[in-house]
Every structure is written in C-alpha cells, then in structure tokens.
Structures
1.
Amino acid sequence: MNGMISLDKMGVDIHEKIELASEVSSNLLEGNAFLKMQDASLNVLLRNFDRMLVLNSKVNTPGASVPEREYLQLEYDVLRKHFVSVEDQEYKGTRLFGDGKSDLIRLYSYEFGNWLTVDVSQPDLNDPSIALIRNYGIYSSKESVLVDKSILMQAMKKILNYRLINNAQEKRIGNSLNCIRDEIGRLTRVDAESNSKIIQFSDVEVNRMIDTAELMVDKFAAPQRPLELAVM
C-alpha cells in the first residue's frame, strides 16, 4: 500500500493572495481609466486654447473690421462654453477636475509583499490664468478686461503641465499593474502545481511519520489532528 498526502492546505493562503491582488488590480484599472478620460479632456482643452490663441491673433490684426472681430468673438464663446462643460465631467461619480482644494485620490497597491499608495490628482481648472479665459472674451466694446496672448500662453502651459503629471501617474499605475499581474501569474502557477502534486510515500515512510506525529502529540499533550506537510 502507498500513502498519499495532498497539499490542499498549502493553497489556502495563496488563494487569499490571488483574490487580494485581483481586487487591487481592479482598483488600479479604475484609476487608469479615470486618468485616460482626464487626459482626453485635457487634450481637448489644449486644442481649444490653441484655437483661441489663433482667434486672439486675428481679432488683434490691424484693419480687422468690427463685424469680423465680433464673429471671431462668437467662435471664442463657443469654445469657452465647451470649456465650462469639461469642468463638470465625471468618471463614475468622481469629478475629473478639482477646485484647488480637492485632496489627491489615493489608490492602494500591493507590490512585492508591501502595501503602498498610488496618487491620482484632480487638476485645478480654477487657476487664475484659466479662470480668465472662462470669464472674459477676446473682443468687446463693453468689457474692460480682455484675454490677451500672454494669458492664453500661461493657460496652455498650465494644461501641458497637468498632462505631464497625468501621464506620470498613468505610467506609475501601469508599472503597478504589471507587477501585480506577474505576481498573480506566479501565485496561480504555484497554486496549480500544489493542487496537482501528490506525494507518494512507501509504507515504511508513512508509518514512521504517523509514529512521529503520535509521539509529538503525546509529548505536548496536543489534540490529535491530521498530519500536515508544508512544502517550500
């Protein structure tokens, strides 16, 4: 007769780790989707600001007539209204952009056995240079404050900086996801190997292990339980 001892017990902790890593991975994927949507909106704003810069140049062209300038202002207003709509965009109930007072969104990650946090920011679209674009035009016979080239350039610089931060955060999450995927793959392989591994022992070896277990139980007056093997 051959004795067979299964290593099922070994898989319990591995299953928990796989489940935890999967939950963390799902959370990070949500963060990644949030950042991609945010970056797409920032890219639209950047294109709109670039067009506003062209409109500003045309409206200040010597010899431009009043009707021409008014028409350029109308196009500017359309872009400005779109900008206001971008401010209110959300991803699953979470605003893409903050008001300068919002805290960083912190996502939990688990890498190489350590807990850590990955930051996701909500860019402030109430920055003074950006706010001026939202509140004032490039041509008006009534308004005393007008948006000039320097303001538009500052706003574009600010949006570019937001995109750099966004891309760095997205890259950081990507690195975390790669680490977690590798860890899930490793744990899954170990789990599969442990589930399929059946250790064969001779009758003599089985009897010796049982005798040893019984001696240990007697020695420490411990309750009897099945013999467990831990395979490293």
2.
Amino acid sequence: MTLAISKGYIVTVNIVLCLDPNPEHLWWKNLMIESKKFMKTMLAISLLLNIIVLIPVCVGLATHADGIQVSFGEATPARGILLSVYLSILAASASLLVFRDPKLTAALLLMQIIYKLTTPITVGTFQNPVAISNLGIAAFHSVTLFITWRSVGNPLK
C-alpha cells in the first residue's frame, strides 16, 4: 500500500483500521512499516529544513551581515540571545538527524511550532519577514508532527 498525504488516504486508513486492526495480518504490518518509513522521512525533512534555514541566519546574525538588521533589528543583547537559541536548535537538529530519535525530534518540533506561531504576536506584525517565514516553517513542522502522531501515537509519551 502506498502512502499519500490526502484526505482520501486518511479516510481510507480509518475505515481499514476499524474493519480489521489485527496486527498479525500482512496488510496491517505492511501499512505500519510504510507509515513509519514515511514518518521517518518527514522527521528528517523537518530537521533538514531547520539546518538549511538556520545556517545562513546564524552566520548572518553572528557577522552582522547586510539585511539582517531589516529582519532582526539592530544588534542588541536580545539579538545575541536569539542567536544562542538558533544555534541550539541548529545543534539539536543536526544531532537528531544523526541519532534519529522520534520522541526528541517531536519535542523539538513542538517547541518550534509554539514559538514560531507566537512570533507575529510578540513582534506585533505579520509583515516582518521572520514572522512570515516562521509561520511557513511551523505549518510544515505541524504536518510532520501530525504524520508522526498518526504513525506511532503520541510521540511525546
């Protein structure tokens, strides 16, 4: 059975699971194997997204690159603290990409979703480029968490 992200797939899986959730049946095992492979792929893509976005952002913040002031404001201690937070997310993402722990990855992504969704509120505008990109990344990480939840149940247990 192939996996696809679509409303029809979710409905189909729900119907199938209700009809015969016996873990001994071959189709059930295949579905669970494919679902977990897809979950692992999505977790890896979310971690790669963090790395791809954070490397240039951290370099820009650390070197006071042109254009950083427009998005992040003037160099202040608060911006230095933000760089520390970004570096820790970058290090955690790189580590989790190597050591592959779905529970730890889910916790990291959930924390990011919360702070990214609150960014437009704390910044006071939806027009800031960082707030806009944060909303897009939060949406992607939310899909990854939903797929993880569908594959293994609550990943934070």
3.
Amino acid sequence: SLPESTRERIRGIAAEMGYTAHPLVNALMHLQRSSKPLPQHLKLAYVNFRQPSGYSQNIVRHATRQAALHGYKLEVFDLFPGELTLRRVAGICRARNIPGIVFGSASGVDLPQDIDWSPFCLVTLSNQPGMPNNLRIRPDTGGNATLAYRTLRRQGIERIGMILSARMHTATDPQWAGGFLAEQAHLPLERMIPVLILPTDPILPEDDPAQRRRLEAWQATHAPEAILTHHSSLQPLREYDRKPRRWAKVVTLEHAELTGETGIDQKSYELGRAAVDFLVKLIAVNQRGPSSDARTLHIAGEWRE
C-alpha cells in the first residue's frame, strides 16, 4: 500500500484538478474492500415524504422494476411515520455508498437546507421549492388540462369550468389553472369561466355552508356544462350535483389510470420508470450534487374514458 504522505499528496492534486470519485466505482470499491459478501444488486434510494396512495405506490412499483432492469435494488425510505428524518436518510445513503436518490412528492413539506447532498446523483418528482436535484420529473399538468379541455370541446361541450382546492392549485405550480385559462384566451369575455378555488381538500360543499354558497354563486353566474377537477373532489362534486342536476360531466385531471374515471391518465407508471432511467444516466456521467441549472422533464398524459 502507498505511504500516507503519498496518499495525501495525491488527494491534494486531485482536489486542485476538481476531481470527484465516480459514485458507482466508489460503491464497487467499498464493497470489494468489505469483508461482507458482495450483494446481488447495488442500491438506489427512493424517499417517500407522505402516506402512500395508489398513485405514489404505482410510481414506486414501476421504479423498483426499472431499477432491477438496470441491475439495482431500490430501497424505499418512508419519512411519514416521523421516525426517520431526511438528514438521517442522507447519512444512511452515505454510509451504504448508495450513489443515487429519487425524491417523491413533497408538496408542503418543510425541507432542511443544510444537508450535504454533494455525494449523490439526485432526481425529484416534486415541485417543492428547495428540493435538491439534478433533474425534476413532473406530470405535464398544464398540457393535461389543455388536453382535457380540448377533448370536451370536441365532444360538443361548450361551457367548461374548473374547480380546485387551494392545496391542489398550489401543488401544480399552478399549471392546471394555467392550461385551462390559456384555452379560453380567444373567447369573448362574457364566455370565459374563471377557475373556482375553494379552501378545503377534498372540496366538501355539503359540509361547509360558506363553501357551498360560493360554489352555488359561481355555478349560477357561469352555468358550466362540465367540470374539470382533481381526484379527491370527484365524488363530493357529484353528490352536490344530484339535486338538481347542474352539469353533464365531472372529469378528473389525475389518476384515471388507477380509478377508471373519465379524464387524464397522468402515467404514474412512466414517472417511476423515467426517474430511475435518468438517475442511472446521471450516475454514469458522475453528475452529483444539486445543480443550479437543473432541468425539468414533463411526462405528457393521455385521455381515458
């Protein structure tokens, strides 16, 4: 082995050159030097910030399968019980020489900004400000709203409204509303329908008299024939619509692939696959740590009926 003085001189030269160890090679060397037997798969990490839903579980399921195709095992870290912190996850990944991390949706989560993510390649599925990443992968929410609007127009529906909770409006950057309003830009002012944003999620007009009054006033003023909304508010709005009938359709802007509802398939399966594919590419080119010029990839949805 090399004398310590020689090692220090080599480290100094490497630092001057801006050299950083390749995470995959680093992980392999760590395993090679370990007294433990080599595992069948190297690991990638996936961080869950919220209680799992059908949507997030589908993302993880397909990310796990895609990781296996690349020769990795995906280790899932669940932060939602409160027993595990993001700082602890970073420490575990560093100790295990895990080269890459996928961050799941973290809307509304308070993220610590003093964690050192420089050893890792990073992909995030969240639009949360301050989320460290080299690449952000998101559903094309603006394009999906446009697709839903145009599909309903082709079906002969003239007056289309959009009702969102404040939380979901913010969580989409707010691209659902942007795509919807852009489609109305060519209409005469009297035919435009403003987006109705209500405070609770899901929207519960039957349980909230003030919210119900706002909804009734908006409906009476604009008389929409169809409503675009998010998955959690589909049933409450249908219940509200029963007596009397107010509109012909309530359409979901998300999760149609999971529920069979009429509306947008956000391709949660493709989000999981793409996250792993691009994480593996980042590892291959040794692009580690948060990037000041991180890119965003949008996954286009499809209409299902």
4.
Amino acid sequence: MRKLSLATVVLFYTLIISCEKGTQVNPNDFFIAANLGSTNWIAQPSTAYLANKDTLQISGSYADGSQNLVMKVPFQGRGNYTLDSSQASFATYNIEGGVSVPTAQYKLDTTQINTVSLDQSNVYVETGSFQLHFIKVSGSSTAANTLTFANGKFWVALPNIN
C-alpha cells in the first residue's frame, strides 16, 4: 500500500513535469521521494553547485527537519553515476525547542551499489532517480544500523549560476 502511495506521488509529479510550464517554475512543485524502509519518504529539496560547477549537490530535508539527505552528483549531463563513500550522507535529528539535536549519522555502504541517474535537465530543472544504501557511523543505539532509499525520484531546481 505504501509503495502504491509513493508511486502515485511520483506519477502525479511526472504529470506536472510533462506539462508545458515555459520558464515559470513553482518551488513548491520540487521534491525528493523514496521508499525508506516501509516509509514513503518525501522531502523538500535544495541544490548547490560545488567545485568548478562540475558537481551538483542535492539535499532533501524531511517535513519537520528531523532527517536530512545529501547527494553530491557529478554534473556531466544525462547518465547513471555510481557514488563513492564521500558523495552522500544521511542524518537524523530530534527537534527540541526549535533546535536540531543530531541523533544518528550515516554514510554510504560501499559494499553495495549506490547510484544516481540524471534523466532530464534544462536550464532550470533536473529530474532523476536514485538508490542509496547507508550504514550508521554514530548515534543512538535505537537508530537503525542500516538504511536503504529505494525507488528514489527527484525533481529539483538547478541553482542560479550568476
């Protein structure tokens, strides 16, 4: 049922993407979504260029700020990219009195294949998919030791390069 819900959300956004929008882009339409265990994980994205604008950083903050995903993807056009241990991270937080307190930090599990696909882009928007596997490096003993983002999709605004 949850996978069906994520599929519905992704289908909805795919329909939005395919509509003619010209250069007008609504920031509320952007998303990062995946199955995180049994949860339909949907986050508000942000992006930035790193290095010599040859790397696109895509970050997603879960609704209440309690989780944050960061992917650093080589930005060399359409294609499938395998990420190494330094190119993605995930963290969980408790929000206490409006302050984020870290509860667990994760790094990519390099014993598994971690991929990001850049599917389509124009001057304003990038779409793609991802599959990421993480292992806990620090944090609460009650936090999961491993996490997998499966069937990930994103539609994000490209950073302004001015």
